[in-house]
Amino acid sequence: MSVLKSLKLSDAKPAAQSKTPAERAREKLIGNLALQKDLAKATIEGRVFVPPKRWVSRTNEDGVRVRVETPRRVRKCWFEDGNRTTHFVMQYGGRPLEIAKGKTAIEVGPLANLPTLIDGLIEAVRAGEFDTALSNAAAERGRLLNRNGRPKAN
């Protein structure tokens, strides 16, 4: 008996998993927070953090397109004030994310506490606690990208 005859075949196909804009915004913010956590750990350990940027295609000498890894630039989203206290600013779309009215920075204390704080922030983003701030940031970004000053219609 052949293997093909012993299989139970069907015409089932995977359903498309479309994500909502809020889910895409959460994933984007979580990815940025994970990069900041890795950068903070590397800074605490005293090593250089250079994550690779993948899928850059170039043409080699034979005229064939190849994929190349290049170093990716990651800006740190924390700073120290005059008292050597570290403050963390979450970024979304290249701009500070307003957590509360007029508040964009989170006081961390010493730099060694930053990875733990970022873990907590990632859990809060997954729970949807930043959805309002993310939607406000997306609307502001839409206003900035639209020429007539009104947000783009979805």
UniProtKB/TrEMBL annotation:
InterPro entries from the UniProt entry: DUF6641 (IPR046581)
Region (Disordered): 1-23
Superkingdom to which the source organism belongs: Bacteria
Pfam families: DUF6641 (PF20346)
Name the UniProt record assigns to this protein: Uncharacterized protein
Species the sequence originates in: Microvirga alba
